[in-house]
Design brief:
Length: about 270
C-alpha cells in the first residue's frame, strides 16, 4: 500500500492502477547497468535502469555522477518525455534500481528523491489536452549497525508534485490557448523513524538499503488541433548520513576496567617495595 492517499488523474483514473497496468503490461525489457559510483560517505552500487514502454529505447536516465552524497542523473539528455497531438496518447515509464551502502564509520539517516521537468499543453478548441507525472519509491532495509538483517520492505511512497499535484489539464490550468509550466516532485524517507515505528532495536542505525524508483509520464492531446507534452529534466537521489560514535561494547569496556585496576595494583606494590 502507498503511504499517502490514493491519487487520481483528473479524468478519474487512479494513478496507482494506471502505473500497475503499464508496468505489468510491459514487464519484459532489457536492463542497462551502470558502474558503481562513490559518494563522500556512501557507495552507490548495482545501479541499473529499465525502460518499461515500447518505443522508448534506453537509456532514459543515463549514467549518474556523484556530488557529495547525491547521485545525479540527467534524463533531459536522453529524451525522457511523453508527447501527443491530434487526439493521440503517449506514455513513457522507466525504473531506476540501486543499492546504497554507508562507508565504514557512517550510517544512512535519510533518503531523498527529487525530480523536475516541464509541461506544455496547447489547443485551439479541438480538445482538452492533459499531462501528468507520477513516481513511486520502494525501499528495502538490508543492513543495520553493519550487520545483515532479514530484508525490511517499507511501504511504497508516492512523490509529491507541484503545481497541480503533477496533473495538468488545459481546461483547468490554462488562461489561453497555451499552458506551460515547470514542475517539481520530491519525497523524503526518515530511516530512523522507520526503525522506531517498527520497534526495531539498533545501536547506530541503517547501513545498507536497496532502492527502486518507478517514473511515469503521460501525455494525452484530447482532440484534433491539440497537443500535450511533458518531460523530465532532472532526477537526483540524496542521502543524509551520520557519523558512528565509537562507544566500547560492554565486554570491551569491562576488560579495560580490569586492566586499569591491575595496573593500579602493580604500581601500588612497586611503591610498597620501594
Amino acid at each position: 500500500m502507498f503511504s499517502n492517499q490514493v491519487r487520481y488523474c483528473r479524468g478519474g483514473i487512479p494513478i496507482a492502477a494506471l502505473l500497475s497496468f503499464v508496468f505489468l503490461a510491459n514487464s519484459v525489457f532489457a536492463t542497462t547497468f551502470y558502474p558503481d559510483v562513490m559518494g563522500t560517505n556512501v557507495w552507490f552500487r548495482d545501479i541499473s535502469e529499465n525502460t518499461q514502454t515500447i518505443g522508448d529505447p534506453e537509456p532514459l536516465y543515463g549514467p549518474p555522477i556523484a556530488m557529495g552524497d547525491v547521485l545525479d542523473f540527467n534524463p533531459n539528455n536522453y529524451g525522457f518525455s511523453a508527447s501527443s497531438n491530434d487526439g493521440s496518447v503517449d506514455t513513457t515509464s522507466g525504473a531506476v534500481s540501486l543499492m546504497i551502502e554507508a562507508k565504514p564509520g557512517f550510517t544512512l539517516d535519510t533518503v531523498g528523491i527529487d525530480e523536475s521537468g516541464f509541461v506544455n499543453l496547447f489547443t485551439l478548441g479541438g480538445g482538452d489536452p492533459f499531462a501528468s507525472v507520477t513516481s513511486l519509491v520502494e525501499l528495502t532495509i538490508s543492513e543495520i549497525d553493519g550487520v545483515a538483517v532479514v530484508p525490511i520492505n517499507l511501504p511504497g511512497v508516492m512523490l509529491s508534485f507541484t503545481p497541480s499535484g503533477g496533473d495538468f489539464q488545459h481546461s483547468v490550468d490554462a488562461a489561453g490557448p497555451q499552458y506551460s509550466s515547470a514542475w517539481q516532485g520530491s519525497a523524503d524517507i526518515d530511516l530512523f523513524a522507520e526503525l522506531d515505528n517498527r520497534l526495531i532495536s539498533y545501536t547506530q542505525g541503517v547501513t545498507k538499503v536497496s532502492l527502486r524508483v518507478d517514473n511515469f509520464l503521460l501525455a494525452a492531446a484530447g482532440g484534433v488541433g491539440s497537443l500535450a507534452s511533458i518531460d523530465k529534466n532532472e532526477f537526483v537521489i540524496s542521502l543524509g548520513t551520520g557519523v558512528i560514535n565509537n562507544i566500547p561494547e560492554p565486554a570491551t569496556f569491562g576488560l579495560a576496567v580490569i586492566g586499569l585496576f591491575g595496573a593500579m595494583q602493580m604500581r601500588r606494590r612497586q611503591r610498597q617495595l620501594a
